[in-house]
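Here is one chain, start to finish.
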Amino acid sequence: MLKLHLDSSPDAAWRAIRSPEVFRAVSMPFASFTSLEPDGFPDTWPQGEHAVRASAFGLVGAGEQVIDLAFTGKRDARLVHDTGYGVSGPLALLDYWHHTMAVSPGRNGGTLFRDRVVFDAGVLTPLVWPALWAFWQWRGIRLRQLAPTWT
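Its structure:
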């Protein structure tokens, strides 16, 4: 779990965490994603399932996954839930996935951002955990860097 103060308004952060462009920007260079939808990535994720292909460092295929989004909360605390699943490749090793991102007004302005993932890869969980932990730290760095640019 990450708990960050972002230098952006909660409304701008809410728009950003529902943006495929931001999703891709905070994932690079560790992971890159290509939409498998007929029209490609939308400007803003709608609720529901979205098929993507992932690669590690833009070089090694990591498989296909479904991002399954739901949005909850009110203006003071809004949440994105991803309960998607891996379809093929290493991503299919995950037996359970629940990624939650929450935005709320921060102290002294800005946004309080919480980013939590709960996953299970069976007996492989201890091997997967360090890679996901490192990826989550990178996401936090990139979110802090990009937040001032969100309008």
